[in-house]
Write the structure tokens for this entry.
Amino acid sequence: MSTWTALTTLSEETAAQALAAQMEALLSPSPTGIGCFEIEDDSGRWEVGGYFTEKPDEVALAILAALHEARPFAVSKLNDRDWVAKVQRELHPIHAGRFTVHGAHDIDTVPGHRVSLVIEAAMAFGTGHHASTQGCLWLLDHLARRGWPAGRRPRRAIDIGSGTGVLAIAAAKIWRARVVAGDIDPVAVSTTRANVAVNGVSGLVQVMQASGFRHPIVRREAPYDLVLANILAAPLRRMAPDIARHLVPGGYAVLSGLLRSQAPTVMASFAAFGFARVSERRIGEWSALLLRRV
């Protein structure tokens, strides 16, 4: 499998966010991830990019670029070996709350009081270095400190769109919870299995290829005390009723993969199904939400 990237730049933040939101809705193929970042060269310009497992529709990208007055998209193909080598060269340990996300080569540098999450670079999305993943880890730390009453803990959790499995592994490590980790991408499934084994939580995390709650094992393990979903804003909004149906009253949902500008509409979708906002973690232009089903 290869990864395709499509990157462009814009001169204005609002336009960049709008372009990123519209890229989310692309079909045939759909992006597996979207990024929107200010370029750190004091130019004031913004970069918007998408990752695809198939060659993206360059005509659709050209139309989007023209509509938002962006430069034409640069579309590139990265082979597995090139992609992984590039990521491994650039990754460094990330600290989020009590968690440290790192590769195996950095394991000796992690202090003993930290919760170590060994996540190797792979073709799956979610090494822990993206702001949305970091936001989720911060909220898991917040939930561990302030969420459940003393003496209680989540016993069943689900990680929807598990990517590399970082959130599932984090929940298993801090709560010893049984976690179902599902992803539609077979590469993500195999990557999660490998990371689960490396982190010593194979007995707690069950990994499978699944879309949302459709897999029979996912439905059998319900209801859940905790739902983790670091995907994209549009599918999060669509999944609000399913998440409410499979989460116990008083249970929590950690949601991300959304821009700060998208957080209010995602929150409104979940409020309609009985969720209350507990906390929000913003990192750059990205937001992560901690919600409670009341």
User: Anything to note?
Assistant: Residues 179 and 286 are 25 Å apart (CA to CA). The first helix runs from residue 13 to 24. The mean pLDDT is 87. The two ends are 43 Å apart (CA to CA).
